[in-house]
Design a protein that fits this description.
alpha+beta, 4-stranded antiparallel sheet, globular, 9 helices, Helicase, Ruva Protein, domain 3
């Protein structure tokens, strides 16, 4: 499933194609949304927001299109009506005079009045979005120490979209690594310094992944490894998907475990209990 950085990058592409342009045609594949097609014809896209893994396309007519890519959803931007050759099913299409924004394979699509957006079941429960909202280290420290979260294992907590929006499996492993936190620990088990490193790591790695297209490793180390001819799959992350490889810092073999039914990677030396 794409994580917050991937959805924000997709939102950027959709916004670039649609913002401040008049919708000439709209298509909804889901039968219960077909009646909204005429509603959006002639409207103008004002902006595109994200809330974690959800996208919100805002229009000047007071409506918003909510979509969640789930596991297989994919946005494609094309010249108007130039559909790609694909086996995916088209679920939503928005066309203006120059571009078409096409959403394939996603079934979680809704049309909401702007005032209804905050009460949407997903939006209402999801935590702060670091790529669409102004979130500080102090904001995250407050959440880490909140009684709702402090007694839950980090490995479970970081996947909870109610804690911080947009963090998924690869970011979970990477955040715990840069914070020096063993995945079996809870915030309540950790020092203030680890809390600070976790909060800063959340901000830094989410933004780095967004800016680099999915790379979370240190930029200077990445460049060094690239110069050595190392493949992207081996320099992209600190620990994620690197089981058996040497930790870039201490040389210890990276280990793999399972938490919340999903794979998790860590360095047993840098992330001691």
């Amino acid at each position: 499933m794409p994580e917050g950085p991937e959805i924000r990058r997709a939102a950027d592409a959709v916004e670039c194609a649609l913002k401040n342009r008049t919708v000439e045609d709209a298509y909804f594949a889901l039968p219960h949304l077909e009646d909204y097609e005429d509603l959006f014809k002639g409207s103008v896209v004002s902006r595109v927001d994200t809330k974690g893994k959800a996208m919100l396309i805002r229009f000047d007519n007071g409506y918003t299109i909510y979509s969640h890519n789930q596991l297989y959803g994919k946005w494609m931007i094309r010249n108007t009506y130039n559909y790609p050759k694909t086996n995916r099913q088209l679920r939503l299409a928005l066309h203006n005079e120059k571009k078409s924004a096409l959403l394939y394979s996603a079934s979680d699509i809704e049309v909401l009045r702007n005032e209804e957006v905050p009460e949407h079941p997903f939006i209402a429960k999801v935590g702060p979005d670091l790529l669409s909202e102004d979130v500080t280290v102090d904001d995250l420290l407050e959440r880490i120490q909140d009684k709702r979260f402090r007694n839950r294992k980090w490995a479970i907590l970081l996947l909870d979209q109610g804690f911080v929006a947009g963090i998924g499996n690869y970011l979970r492993s990477e955040i715990l690594y840069v914070a020096g936190i063993h995945p079996s620990l809870r915030p309540a088990d950790c020092t203030e310094d680890q809390h600070l490193k976790a909060a800063q790591g959340i901000i830094d790695l989410v933004r780095r992944s967004y800016e680099t297209g999915g790379i979370t490793n240190d930029p200077s180390l990445v460049q060094k490894l690239k110069d050595q001819g190392v493949k992207r799959s081996r320099y992209r992350h600190w620990v994620f998907n690197r089981e058996g490889a040497a930790c870039f810092v201490c040389g210890t073999e990276i280990e793999k475990t399972v938490a919340a039914s999903r794979r998790l990677y860590y360095c047993p030396h840098c992330q001691k209990i």
